[in-house]
Amino acid sequence: MKILFLIVTLLGGGVVYAQSYLPVKRITVTVDGYPVLSPDGKKILFDSDRSGNSELYYMNVDGTQLKQLTFNTANDDSPVWSPDGTKIAFTSVRDDKEGDIYIMDADGKNTKRLTSTPGDDSHPKFSSDGQRIIFNSARTSPDLSVEWSKQTLEIFSMKLDGTDVKQLTNFKTICTYGSLSQDGTKLLFRRVINTPGFNWDLSISKRDSEVFVMNLDGSGEINLSANPAYDGWPAWTPDGRVIFASNRGGIPSRSALYIVNADGSGLKILTDPKYSYNQHSVSSDGKWILAERNAESFAGIDMLELKE
């Protein structure tokens, strides 16, 4: 039985959403994040600090047969599968004080460092054909000595061996969580703009975090989230829509998941704002969302069936 909830958003200008929330299955109850379902739908890849620092793991979708993939005193996080399931890209600070992009076989072997320029490189995503990795980098920031939030981060892509690096954005602000559409013609990303907005805790901010999509050549830019709330963590669905997290529900430091068409139309809320979902991904068949759910005592993984 589905229960219909009526929500009046605090930050949405009085917009009313009548929505039946997605059914939820609890997968983990420890500090786990950035979950991604394998292309064959059998395993969940994620990062976890259960060993004392952030390492990479995978397990069956029912939570059994947990396997640790990385063993390092530095943090490894934000892993993603390659489309064929044979490779895993991730971020690590193991060779530097700042993040770099690494790639390894799906069993944790043959790890290779792909980036080594000054500045943080993080949040890798594979192109749908598996030939390139999209990531955000501070390498063009004019001053890397200032705190991360005051640096410039742009979206880049590269081949799987770290060569042929191409800059995809040039906004001279914070651009993160970049990914390409299935046909490779559009870039989805989070961008901080210089208009008043809200921080994660709903305190007033001079800048606003929004979700954008544009053509790969930089034309046709659309602000998909268009709200003074903190909007971020955008992810494509296989049918070309976008799921993102937003705290526009009016609860400090908590975000719900929303889905929107790539032209900005058809915005719908998917999860209950009293929880806090982010760091999500969508399964390759479009049936499931995997997301971190934050609570007072844990940050675990939930598996949500994408029904509308």
Account of the 3D structure:
- Helix content is 0%, strand content 45%.
- It has strands at 4-8, 16-20, 24-26, 32-37, 43-48, 55-60, 67-68, 76-81, 87-92, 100-105, 112-113, 121-126, 132-137, 154-159, 166-167, 175-180, 186-193, 197-198, 204-205, 208-215, 222-223, 231-236, 242-246, 256-260, 268-269, 276-282, 288-294, 299-305.
- It has a single domain (24-252, 274-305), classed as TolB, C-terminal domain (Neuraminidase), CATH 2.120.10.30.
- It starts with a strand and ends with a strand.
- It is globular and about 45 Å long.
- The strands form eight sheets. Strands 3-28-27-26 form a four-stranded antiparallel sheet, with no helix packed on it. A four-stranded antiparallel sheet has the order 4-5-6-7, with no helix packed on it.
- With 308 residues, the chain is an all-beta fold.
- Belongs to the TolB family.
- Pfam families: PD40.
- This is DUF5050 domain-containing protein.
- It comes from Rhodocytophaga rosea.
